[in-house]
Specification:
This protein has 9 helices and 28 strands. It is α/β, with parallel strands linked by helices. The strands form 8 sheets. It has a 6-stranded mixed β-sheet with strand order 7-4-6-5-9-8, with helices on one face. A 6-stranded mixed β-sheet has the order 16-13-17-21-20-18, sandwiched between helices. The chain has a 5-stranded mixed β-barrel with strand order 22-25-24-26-28. The relative contact order is 0.13. It is elongated, with a radius of gyration of 29 Å. The chain is 20% helix and 26% strand. A hairpin with a 5-residue loop joins strand 24 and strand 25. It has 4 domains: 79 residues, Molybdopterin biosynthesis moea protein, domain 2 (Alpha-Beta Complex); 86 residues, Beta Complex (Molybdopterin biosynthesis moeA protein, domain 3); 142 residues, MoaB/Mog-like domain (Molybdenum Cofactor Biosythetic Enzyme, Chain A); 72 residues, MoeA, C-terminal, domain IV (Beta-clip), CATH 2.40.340.10. The longest helix has 19 residues.
């Protein structure tokens, strides 16, 4: 069922509802609180799960993500809508364009007679924002017109200034030019007709979408509420950003990285205190995380003696859907759901692993929780600027730099492994090296994970 936003009954037929939201579908009821529905049973324990391929793991995440009902909704001013997700389809409030619009500076003419006679008498001038007040354009006549102005009655084309020669009040068509009916004219209603859906619910509102909403009078928009995301970093070696680490310690960068990624994906991050490598600390903080829509953990998911995250999650009755993916970095990634609670993702502690596994798996689910319709990770392709080699067996997502041009190329960024934050910052994407391909020759296409 598709839920649309709620307006109190006292305002349902008010001028407020008719004006502020006239460009969106009117609501019927409040959506049910989030509660995921899963179609099949999964193992309760993590030890028996096999390593999944990247495609298998992503398909599993998307299967769960598509089971969510629509989130709650709220109305916000257009000025605050950037990055939010539309909760009700945007409607054209009138035909777009509302008149036959000139797309060039030139002369409005009857194409048939002007093409035959190849000259016409200029009878006036029409700038944008004005309506022609004279009589209809007759054969042999023309009106000088500006880009964006309504084409006068009797004219069905606009000849460009550059394609005519003017002498006094007469113009002549250049000898090497022709003119067809409809040329340089956008017909009324050709972009949209009044009442037509021009942007669906679930669309993320970027600059283009904001401009479209403004053009149809969308001073306020119905948007989905942003999901709340708990972020829990684990490890005795971690200290806060404000602290000076001892030689055996590191600052907690993953919480800040994940918080930024959550904001970019449309969520609201909530950073929990750092969890120590003890069951009690992990258990207490995981119980705090239950109140959120999604839980993101970093660290503690590998096979070390102090990697206790999966054990504590199991003790709390969590379901595990995968506990490892045949990718690098990010092989120990974990996906599951707390008992009667939110879904969770366990990211490996190395910073590059955290960012890669978030983009591949957590971001699609976060987008779904926020009501977005486009869930999958963003991939593109570019030509290899130099040969790329790797050991086959795992699908690798390696820091790379996309050199933007009309013929884009990509090259790997030298790095010291998945803990190399500096190399990760020098990159602007990740090159995807297939598990069954040892070498990508220079010039061959490379798939890129965008960020």
């Amino acid at each position: 069922m598709h839920w649309v936003p709620y307006i109190p009954w006292g305002h349902r037929h008010s001028s407020y509802a008719r004006t502020a939201f006239r460009n969106q579908s009117l609501p019927t009821r409040v959506p049910h609180p989030r509660k995921a529905r899963v179609g099949r049973k999964y193992p309760q324990t993590f030890g028996s799960l096999s390593l999944l391929t990247f495609t298998q793991a992503l398909d599993l995440v998307l299967e769960h993500s598509r089971s969510f009902p629509a989130p709650a909704v709220e109305s916000i001013p257009l000025e605050q809508a950037l990055g939010r997700t539309l909760a009700a389809q945007l409607l054209a409030d009138r035909d777009q364009p509302p008149f036959h619009r000139s797309t060039r500076d030139g002369y409005a003419v009857d194409a048939a007679s002007f093409s035959r006679d190849r000259q016409a008498k200029v009878t006036g001038f029409l700038p944008a924002g004005k309506v022609w007040q004279g009589s209809a354009i007759a054969p042999g006549e023309t009106v000088e017109i500006m880009t964006g102005a309504p084409v006068p009655p009797g004219a069905d084309a606009v000849v460009m200034l550059e394609h005519v020669e003017r002498s006094g009040d007469r113009i002549s068509l250049s000898s090497d030019r022709t003119l067809r009916p409809g040329e340089n004219v956008v017909p009324a209603g050709s972009e949209a007709v009044a009442g037509q859906s021009i942007l669906p619910a679930g669309a993320r509102l970027g600059s283009a979408e904001i401009g479209l909403a403004a053009s149809v009078g969308g001073s306020r928009l119905w948007v989905y509420a942003q999901p709340s995301v708990a972020i829990l970093a684990t490890g005795d070696e971690l200290v806060t950003v404000e602290e000076t680490p001892l030689p055996h310690q590191i600052r907690n960068s993953n919480t800040h990285t994940l918080a930024a990624l959550v904001r970019e994906a449309g969520g609201i991050p909530s950073a929990l205190p750092i969890a120590a490598d003890t069951r009690d600390s992990l258990r207490d903080l995981l119980l705090q995380a239950r109140s959120h829509d999604l839980v993101l953990l970093s660290g503690g998911v590998s096979a070390g003696k102090h990697d206790l995250v999966e054990e504590v999650l199991a003790e709390l009755g969590a379901e595990f859907y995968f506990t490892g993916v045949s990718i690098q970095p990010g092989k120990p990634a974990v996906f599951g759901r707390l008992h009667n609670g939110p879904y969770f993702f366990g990211h490996p502690g190395n910073p590059v692993s955290t960012q890669v596994t978030f983009l591949l798996f957590a971001a699609p689910m976060l987008r779904a929780l926020g009501g977005q319709s486009n869930l999958s990770p963003l991939f593109a392709q570019a030509a290899a600027a130099e040969p790329m080699t790797h050991k086959p067996g795992l699908t690798r997502f390696l820091p790379a730099h996309l050199e933007s041009s009309l013929t884009p190329t990509v090259r790997l960024v030298p790095w010291q492994g998945s803990g190399d934050l500096a190399a990760n910052a020098r990159a602007n994407c990740y090159a995807v090296l297939p598990a069954d391909q040892e070498r990508i020759p220079q010039g061959d296409p490379v798939t890129l994970l965008l960020r």
